[in-house]
Amino acid sequence: MIPIDVALLFMGAAIALAAVPGPDNIFVMTQSALYGRVSGVIVTLGLASGLIVHTTAAALGVAVIFQTSQTAFAILKYAGAAYLVYLAYQAFTASGSKLNAEDAPRIPTRKLYLRGLIMNIANPKVTIFILAFLPQFVDPANGPLIPQFYQLGALMFLATLIVFGGVALAAGTLGALLRGSASVQLWLNRVSGMIFVALALKLATAER
């Protein structure tokens, strides 16, 4: 069991790291601005769930593969970049009228959740970061190591919900003020598409 002082220190560090602008919180911001606060929160849940996958990889040593194998790292990062390009295509081809009508079809909850989950899992740098970050707070004197990894992973999950949830609510509120105009919605789609392309390029050119 991780001591409370270590848990509080880790939680503070996790919140600070989550607040640093990066691909994940930019992704939450664009999705929330386009589809609303609830959609942004669902995407946030997907991203946070991805952290549990990365924590498991770190706890079981799988993350070492991505840290030491250039091929494994490349496969995962290019898969993630391809998915972002796909999202960019969807954004560029969406029309403002699709978001304008109140009875327009919304993106299913499951699809939004998977967007966040895939976005997080397909970034090998997250796995490597967790592999480097979490062990600093793990101590054999506090008991079995794997449960400690999961305790820290749960705290990172909570920190992500707090920070990214705040981003989703703020961006969703701003987006609600803008979505009344079809032309503005079209502009938001185009900006979102450009952000996805930029994130795809960033991920595709990432080095270990």
Give short descriptive properties of this protein.
mainly alpha; 0% strand; 208 residues
Describe this structure in words.
The chain has 208 residues and is mostly helical. The protein has one domain. Helix content is 81%, strand content 0%. It contains 10 helices and no strands. It has helices spanning 4-19, 23-35, 37-60, 63-68, 70-93, 96-100, 109-121, 124-133, 145-178, 182-204. Helix 2 crosses helix 9, helix 3 runs antiparallel to helix 9 (145-178) and helix 5 packs antiparallel against helix 10. The longest helix has 34 residues, at 145-178. The radius of gyration is 18 Å and the shape is globular.
In short:
The chain has 208 residues and is mostly helical.
Radius of gyration: 18 Å
Low-pLDDT sequence parts: 97-105
Mean pLDDT figure: 79
Continuous helix count: 10
Task: Write the SSE topology.
Elements lengths: L3 H16 L3 H13 L1 H24 L2 H6 L1 H24 L2 H5 L8 H13 L2 H10 L11 H34 L3 H23 L4
